[in-house]
Amino acid sequence: MSKKELSRRRVRNFRVSEISRFIFGNLLALILMASLLQTAGAQDDPFAQAPEKNAKAADKPPVANVPGLAGGKNPTEDRIDFGVSVKPPEAKRGETVQLTIQGILRPGFHTYPMTQRAENPLQDELALSKLIYENSPGLQPLWPISESDPVAKEEQGIGYFLEHENPFTWSQDILILPEAKPGPTTLKFRIRLQVCDQTCVWGEHPFEVTVKVSSDPAVPLTAQLKERMAA
Fold it and tell me: Do 47 and 97 fall within a single domain?
């Protein structure tokens, strides 16, 4: 091969190599640019991952405002108000004080009794109001609970129910046990009830009241008190 032909071949090979590098370089640049654009598009689109995340969230049941749930609103607090009192404010060990709860419903609402229900089997005992006591050392609630009279109201399609729609009271005797410590002690309780207009919602209302235990000698428990303690 002559020097002239060898020189032409080298020039041709150099041009092919240069073209290849040019094509490869441009192709690499295009791939890199496409990748960057795809990443930027995903970051700029706030809904890019929404379908997957929303699908997972939909699997979880909604959390209702359950009474007692941290951060949850009591569903009945804007439907009814309560006032509580204890009389006498001080008593001896072996004596009783009376807890009185007054309920005042907001206009248009009603609730259900605690100790009474209609003969209508649809007014189930489970739907009645409840008075639930917490552990209060030195104090014992005594049966029975007294209640102001409810009224019979006809509920469309289900018959007559006993209801409270006007101010009402619940009251119960609280025994100061012989082993109670003299001085102020706390009676803790909560009221669980449903309050209705066109719809009914359940709620719980917690309370604390102070009972002062006298430092006088304890009074012996009567037979009647012992019977009520065992009821």
Answer: no
**pTM listed for this prediction:** 0.68
Query: Which uninterrupted H or E stretch holds 51?
Result: helix 50-58
> Residue 197 gets which letter from DSSP?
S
CA distances from 103 to 31, 80, 117 (A): 74, 7, 18
- Residues of the domain holding 131: 80-218+225-230
Shared domain check, 91 and 142: yes
For the chain, give the number of residues: 231
Counted domains in the chain: 2
- In 3D space, the residue among 149, 117, 147, 129 whose CA is nearest the CA of residue 80 turns out to be 129
Rounded-to-integer distance, Cα 101 and Cα 32, Å:
76
pLDDT tens-place string over residues 68-79: 444 578 999 999
Residue 128 falls inside a structural domain:
yes
C-alpha count within 13 angstroms, C-beta hemisphere, residue 38: 6
Decide if pLDDT at 62 tops 90: no
Query: CB within 8 A of 206, min separation 6: which ones?
Result: 188, 189, 190
109 and 212 assigned to the same domain = yes
C-alpha to C-alpha distances, 119 to 53, 78, 124, 125, nearest whole angstrom: 52, 30, 10, 11
